[in-house]
Amino acid sequence: MSRNSTVTLAVVVVAAVAAGAYWMTRPSSPPPAAPQIETDETQAASIDTSSVVEMVQGAEDAPVEIIEYASYTCPHCAAFHEGPYKQLKKDFIDTGKVKFIYREVYFDRYGLWASTIARCAGPEKFFGITELIFKGQSEWARAGGPNEIVEELRKIGRLAGIDNDQLEACLQDGENAQTLVAWYQENVEKHEVNATPTFIVNGKMVENQPYADFKKLIEAELGN
């Protein structure tokens, strides 16, 4: 998946979520139209993103740091997490050689909603819920309109052990949604990310590639 990411897009996503807050608890009601709100970089930069928790696996002092930028609505990201990621975790993350940081990219409001569900129960459940979201991507992302999609995401949250009240609190937290989008914007501008998945390996951008090639790259960083 590839998109140009702009401050305007980010704020439109926030506007869509804010506009949709009331109907998330009313699945039978049609969503209101999302206002097309624009802002400038100064306004976006004024949002404090320090409260956003980085989702990390592996040893803090690992010799190789990998940042993955991914969208929950990106099929290539789902394919990576269904296959190469599991091998990466086994070979390098669980062995203390790689510190893995997962950062969400919001190309659409559905990806933002999925991120909200993934983060709802905190870091302890984040990667497990992320696995469920990617595994079920072909079902929830094609469930129909916004009401149907958000209900399928709720089901994933409940499957992960999040109760309904907590799910609704997370989905309707407009301030958190705005903070997440500002955080996403900061990250993609810093690393010039415009496609997913994108990887930053020890500060260098790496495109999605077969795991055998990715493994060789990591081993080179390790000096093997």
From TrEMBL:
Query: What taxonomic ancestry is recorded?
Result: Bacteria, Pseudomonadati, Pseudomonadota, Alphaproteobacteria, Rhodobacterales
Report keywords, A-Z.
Disulfide bond, Oxidoreductase, Redox-active center, Signal
Q: Which InterPro entries match?
A: Thioredoxin-like_fold (IPR012336), Thioredoxin-like_sf (IPR036249), Thioredoxin_domain (IPR013766)
Q: Name one GO molecular function term.
A: oxidoreductase activity
Q: What is this protein called?
A: Thiol-disulfide oxidoreductase
Q: Does the keyword Disulfide bond apply?
A: yes
Q: What does this protein do?
A: May be required for disulfide bond formation in some proteins.
Q: Family per UniProt?
A: Belongs to the thioredoxin family. DsbA subfamily.
Q: Which residues form the Thioredoxin domain?
A: 28-223
> Please, which domain of life does this record's source organism belong to?
Bacteria
